[in-house]
Amino acid sequence: MKIIKYILVIIPYLALIAVLYFFFNRFIINDKNGNPVYGFEYTKDGLEKDQSYIFYSDKNKKIVSVSTDKKIIQKELTANSLSISPAYNDKVNFQIPIKDSLVVNEDRYLTNQKIVAISDIEGNFKVFTDFLINNKIIDKNLNWIFDKGHLVCNGDFFDRGNDVTATLWLIYKLEEEAKKAGGEVHFILGNHEEMNIQGNVKYVQLKYRTLASELNIPYKELYGKNSELGRWLRTKNAMVKINDILFTHGGISPLFVEKKYSIQEGNNLIRSYLGEDVDYIKFINPRAYFLYDRQGPFWYRGYFGDYKEYYKGASQKDVDKITNYLGVSKIVVGHSIVDKVKSLFQNKVIAIDVMEDSDPRKSNDDSMANSCQGLLVENSTYYRIYSNGKKEKLF
Fold first, then answer.
1. What are the residues whose beta carbons fall under 8 Å from the beta carbon of 299, sequence distance 6 or more?
2. What is the pLDDT of residue 30?
């Protein structure tokens, strides 16, 4: 009885400690603008060209840009379109009509047209556009020419690169152009999208962190619910099924099946908590938290062997069970780096996050372009496609 009495006395204190830990992590370990502190201060010297952000308030729409001469320009947006020029080249420019409304994307599609998938561009506008141009998805003026085809951007278009904003706006534009032609652009949420929307700046270029600091807002507000890009991102899915192919960034783990998630439930739960602190999600909704954790679709790496001490690699039996459960024949993933687009597990998993030798995403455009590959599905045949437009049959 004494033991029970002591336990009853201790429980309220343990609960208080848990609550204090939660609120400390959620609100305190940030600088004055809400950005995580990593031992440095932002200065205006960190600003670089960046176009553009649209913010909404009760009174107006505001557009914020950083000019080539590193000046922050803020003005009211009165037009229904904006002009974007990427940081790497002032001569490149494209117009974007602002959408009248944003709706949550479907997560299932049927098509008899070509499908092209590319992953992990990570803010490299030039490599992305060269790939699209040479594979006849867009023309040299960055306009959609892929007719009724489907383009899948399979996650991780944020971080590391210097042209994240322009890359997002291009996808935003192509999405509408594709629809008008009878095609589709699918922007899949990856772990780097989730991290940025949440406000995790671990891999974010200094120029983006500096801009947020100069605007006196937390970094996550660049993609918050009162920004056009933030609202657009919140319409996206982490898993999309096209015909009998599932596209997702990290992968689907055996635990996803054991816990009996559906694609629709998974996408809905992810969108419901997008931008929230993961400790908060774990506290409020453990079922949603699983989707953000190591064996959820953002982060799973089990198709490529054991992942550290956290879980064993998937077996052929696991993959067979996963594909049968989801009603698909193939799962296309990025996230885990491979030397070339390749199929695994008797062609049931296709890996498309390609990087040769060193890490070209941290060096220059040319080295990344040399290793940039994607996937083409045409008439039930699967091809490895290159940045120069060359293609090789997989199976």
1. 191, 250, 292, 293, 335
2. 45
Query: Model pTM?
Result: 0.88
Omega cis (within 30) before 52 = yes
| Residues 227-273 pLDDT 10s | 999 999 999 999 999 999 999 999 999 999 999 999 999 999 999 99
pLDDT at 40: 41
Domains of the chain by residue range: 1-30, 108-393
The CATH superfamily assigned to 108-393 is Metallo-dependent phosphatases (3.60.21.10)
